[in-house]
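Lecture notes, unit on binding sites. The following record was shown on slide 14. It pairs a sequence with heme C.
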Amino acid sequence: MHEDVPVTRISHGAAPGSKRPGLRAFLTLLLGAGMVCATALAGSRPAKQAAGAQAKAAAPAASDYVGSDVCAACHQSVVDGFANNPHTKMMLMHGDKGITCENCHGPGKAHAEAGGDVSKIFDPAKATPAQVNAMCLKCHAQTHPNFLRSPHDKAGLSCISCHSIHDSKTAEYLLKTPQPQLCYQCHGDIKAKFNMPFHHPVNEGVVQCTDCHDVHGTFQNANLRNTADQNMICTKCHTDVRGPFVYEHPPVKADGCLACHSPHGSENARMLNMPSINTLCNQCHSPVAGDTVHGMGAGSAELAPCTSCHTYIHGSNINAAFLR
Ligand code: HEC
Ligand code: HEC
Ligand code: HEC
Ligand code: HEC
Ligand code: HEC
Ligand code: HEC
Ligand code: HEC
Ligand code: HEC
Ligand code: HEC
Ligand code: HEC
């Protein structure tokens, strides 16, 4: 357990100094976090060893940590800038002894004693993505258990491709850049989709990329999120099309919304995949167009959009043909 993670020592240091109002609540919260870290750490050990140099170093002892007051002596502006960082909650773990910085930078005694020898401190900006991810995931594996199987990890991104601990530009989540610009920096092709005539209002700030995607990885295609009841994420907001209906239109559930809609944006109204509704329907119902079914004579169904009669196209509780 005695690796470079002071948090795991929480049980020794937490109690003293608990005179402040609200501190007990904080400590309870942090104790939870501490346990999470301890568990995550145990699980991630092989990955850390694979990460190389760092893991080969002897496990640091408690006396290798000096506390953030010492860091402040030479990094005053960094320490000042940290005052409102959510990570300052970690400070309270050790009765205000302030080991905050070293939770991420590793033990700092040797670095401090050598007058700031940069080879004796862990600098995430100079580390490999795998090393950075392992470090952050010591504490965040519980909330982001799928990162190491995500397309972003596979593509060699790390947490700090999107997050900035010391220089965040957002009020929440310590992001480098707000959404959607953050995502467009690398996904320029997707940006074009949201400029189409019919699109989800992402650039307008109504919907966010991360409403539909969890960039930290999921078990779905394209990092997609699920609804709480394990359906496609779309019905979280579009509850009226969710059903269940007495008369389901099978492709809505079987093929999913993408059988007919483009998720980001489209040239067609209602973000449909095809310019003509009838062409869309006839991919699966081509004999209908022919037409004996409607009794209207060949081709007559082509004159009006199918949905002018088959209105409740996602399903109906009243009519098996989704008529009005
Ligand atoms: C005696 C002064 C001193 C103390 C104390 C000190 N540092 Fe430094 N630190 C430096 C100097 C000098 C540099 C090099 C700055 C530069 O090159 O711009 C540095 C660089 C760093 C870097 C960047 C390393 C790199 O690769 O460029 C980190 C991270 C860092 N310090 C963290 C810490 C932390 C965390 C603490 C407290 C545990 C700490 N320092 C304490 C003087 C100090
Ligand atoms: C949650 C993890 C985390 C904590 C806590 C943390 N840092 Fe950092 N620090 C980083 C990361 C990541 C970088 C590298 C790149 C960046 O800026 O995102 C960094 C970079 C640095 C640097 C070098 C770049 C610069 O801004 O000069 C210094 C110095 C530094 N940290 C000092 C500190 C000090 C002092 C503390 C405590 C007040 C601290 N850090 C707390 C993650 C952390
Ligand atoms: C591709 C960009 C990207 C990468 C890579 C990334 N994040 Fe995030 N992260 C975000 C965005 C955007 C949010 C805010 C929206 C959300 O929660 O999905 C966020 C939110 C978070 C949150 C706060 C919300 C929560 O669910 O707990 C934490 C903690 C976090 N990220 C940690 C990490 C860690 C640790 C890593 C590396 C293992 C990482 N992130 C990698 C973009 C990224
Ligand atoms: C020693 C444990 C620890 C480490 C290491 C750590 N974090 Fe955190 N992180 C925390 C705690 C504790 C919080 C506050 C949680 C809360 O507010 O409930 C937090 C909060 C966050 C948040 C959410 C901020 C918000 O606005 O909600 C993000 C994003 C985040 N961390 C990213 C990172 C990244 C990226 C790294 C690696 C560079 C990292 N963390 C390393 C413990 C840690
Ligand atoms: C630093 C560059 C970078 C940033 C920033 C970034 N991504 Fe990515 N993203 C990639 C790379 C590289 C891949 C893997 C290759 C690919 O599929 O394009 C990827 C993959 C993805 C995938 C999976 C694609 C698939 O085919 O499975 C989704 C979804 C995604 N990113 C969404 C986002 C979102 C949403 C954001 C903003 C919160 C974001 N990305 C920010 C670089 C980035
Ligand atoms: C309304 C939900 C939704 C929103 C909002 C959304 N996406 Fe997607 N995204 C999807 C779905 C669904 C797919 C899967 C498409 C498929 O499988 O054909 C997808 C696929 C992707 C892919 C994989 C490549 C591709 O073109 O299919 C990337 C990359 C991506 N999205 C990035 C983003 C970015 C960046 C944003 C924000 C600017 C964003 N998405 C917003 C639902 C959404
Ligand atoms: C976070 C909530 C949210 C999610 C998740 C979501 N949408 Fe939307 N959707 C919206 C909003 C908001 C609009 C814009 C409504 C408006 O302009 O009146 C919209 C518009 C639409 C429209 C056009 C409606 C019209 O009247 O023109 C379609 C079609 C659509 N979404 C399909 C989908 C599909 C398919 C998915 C899943 C890939 C999805 N939505 C996921 C919020 C969401
Ligand atoms: C079989 C094709 C098909 C499938 C599958 C489908 N839709 Fe639609 N959807 C349509 C058509 C066609 C329209 C346009 C109806 C019109 O113009 O009257 C539409 C319209 C919409 C609208 C606009 C408002 C409304 O209710 O008419 C939303 C929102 C929507 N669909 C969401 C979804 C979601 C979410 C899913 C997945 C759960 C989904 N659709 C699956 C064909 C489909
Ligand atoms: C991806 C394939 C697919 C698409 C696209 C599709 N459907 Fe269907 N539809 C089906 C299937 C499968 C059934 C059930 C077939 C059956 O029972 O004969 C069905 C059933 C129906 C029924 C009820 C038939 C009955 O026997 O009661 C109607 C009406 C219908 N579709 C109309 C439409 C319309 C209008 C469109 C275009 C907006 C459309 N469908 C698009 C696959 C599709
Ligand atoms: C003028 C109104 C109208 C238009 C336009 C229309 N339909 Fe129909 N459709 C009907 C009626 C009415 C029925 C019979 C419903 C019943 O059996 O109760 C029907 C039945 C169907 C059925 C079920 C056939 C069966 O075996 O029972 C399908 C599938 C269907 N339509 C598909 C389509 C498609 C695809 C289009 C567009 C190419 C279309 N319809 C256009 C009115 C229309």
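Take-home: Residues 278, 281-282, 285, 288-289, 293-294, 301, 304, 306, 308-310, 321, 323 surround heme C (ligand 10) (CB under 6 Å).
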